[in-house]
């Protein structure tokens, strides 16, 4: 992330990674884990955002899914020369999906 919006950004080395795993538990349940990592400039130490998620889903009928997820993000992304903000962000989501 450049300190000035109009600065050159093509020369900054970035890194992104996502790992996800899901497992069906019986006929009606599903559990999952996910890890996201993003660094806007890898030359700055501890300059990244890491996110950990865990989810549990129920399939009560064919074509219907209800999922509860918890995500914890640790955000240290910043411009060069600034201190790491070390923001901890928690999110709880409940959502449903219907297929026709």
Structural features, described:
- This protein is mostly beta strands and 100 residues long.
- It has one domain.
- It has strands spanning 15-25, 29-39, 49-58, 64-75, 87-98.
- It has a five-stranded antiparallel β-sheet with strand order 1-2-3-4-5, with no helix packed on it.
- A hairpin with a 3-residue loop joins β1 and β2.
- The termini are far apart.
- The model has no long low-confidence stretch (mean pLDDT 90).
- Largest sheet report: 5 strands, antiparallel
Overall, the morphology is elongated
Proportion in helices? under 10%
Q: Per DSSP, what share of the residues sits in E-state strands of 2 or more residues?
A: over 45%
Structural class: mainly beta
Based on DSSP secondary structure assignment, what is the total number of beta strands? 5
Overall mean pLDDT: 90
Low-confidence stretches: none
Order of strands, widest sheet: 1-2-3-4-5
Termini separation: 42 Å
- The total tally of domains equals 1
Number of helical stretches of at least 4 residues: 0
Multimeric organization: single chain
Rg, Å, rounded = 18 Å
Task: Give me a quick take on this structure.
The chain is mainly β. Helix content is 0%, strand content 56%. The protein has strands spanning 15-25, 29-39, 49-58, 64-75, 87-98.
